[in-house]
Specification:
By secondary structure, this protein is mainly alpha-helical. The chain is built from 5 helices and no strands. The two termini are 17 Å apart.
């Protein structure tokens, strides 16, 4: 069996879009829980690093899904990814404001989400090779 056939599920936009939907559902579930105790890890801004990394992954998944669907140009895909994830980040902050022991409306968290989305989309564009 040729290698291309083994990797064919990864060339299917539905696989990547499903992964992105799972990413969003996990975000919602994590937001429903009380704020995690970070007593063992006392690093200033570590929660921002987690926001950045999580949204970087989400942007990467969504970028690949859009590209494999043949959606327009990378510039358009980039805008769709960043606007979508910025909206998800804002909704996540709003959602957290309704959860006891959570605080929503943290612009620092949303900024980290946005930077992660921008970085993830840019990395995906830089790594994408049409032959792959």
């Amino acid at each position: 069996m040729p290698v291309a056939r083994c990797l064919s599920p990864f060339r299917n936009s539905s696989v990547w879009l499903s992964a992105f939907v799972c990413w969003a559902l996990i975000l919602w579930i994590l937001s429903e829980r009380p704020a995690p105790e970070m007593a063992n890890l006392d690093l200033p801004g570590f929660d921002k690093v987690l926001h950045f990394a999580y949204f970087l992954v989400g942007a990467f998944l969504f970028s690949i899904a859009l590209h494999l669907r043949g959606s327009s140009s990378w510039r358009r895909n980039f805008l769709v990814v960043v606007i979508t994830l910025a909206t998800i980040g804002a909704l996540d902050e709003w959602h957290q404001s309704w959860i006891p022991s959570r605080s929503g409306n943290d612009l620092g968290d949303w900024g980290a989400d946005l930077l992660g989305a921008l970085t993830g989309a840019l990395i995906c564009k830089a790594l994408w090779r049409p032959a792959c």
